[in-house]
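Running low. Invent one:
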Amino acid sequence: MLSTVRSALEAVYERRLAGKLDGLPRPQHVGIMLDGNRRWAREAGHDDPREGYRVGGAKVEEFLRWCVAARIEHVTLFMLSDDNLHRPPEQLGPLIEIIEETVRSISAPGLPWHVEVIGSLDLLPGGSDLRLKEAAARTSGSGGLQVDVAVGYGGRREIVDAVKAAFEAHIAGGGDPAELVETFDVEHISRHLYSSGPGRDRTDFIIRTSGEQRLSGFLLWQSAYAEMHFVDCFWPAFRRIDFLRALRAYAARERRFGK
């Protein structure tokens, strides 16, 4: 009985909160760090920490639907860092399997978004890179929300790879590397980030669940002027109310971009 009443009250509050956001500034690009899956599993009494990843993976599609309803244009999901690739195989293997399952699920036909997988995919074990790319390719040509899934991703590695790619493109076009050194600027890096395209070299808002308050290498280049929002709950327990409160906090910020 109490849970039914609580759910009804939350639904009313959620509708009011969503209504108050109408007409307020909202981010175009949201980066979210899906943190706290293993800790959620332990606190929920699960012996297998993978249960946290399974529940967290199942929440991704729900979250993307919240973003569509909020008219967000671009979302980057931080699911696995390049540092995580050093975990023992018995931990890493099941985690990557759940990520693959999640990407297949959100890449199903008829969903209102386009999926790309970004990161150092060549470092993933066992042909996982090909399976992820094949799943995401099914959304090619889809309109709507742009969804980047960051797997084996590191912000510092992305910047290094962008510099290399800029020089490789210049040399392939017959250019002199010494000339590029003289003219090299921020646009050369922005054009060669993992997620390329207009506006993808910056993010407006980064959310991290689990109470941790650090970027951990996430979107280092793109987040130069991003607003940050840290949520105490673990990712599997993240609710639409938490998301709407985050958007309300964003709308209250004065964004001056260093001016």
Notes: The longest strand covers residues 145-153. Strands lie at 29-33, 74-81, 113-118, 145-153, 205-208, 227-230.
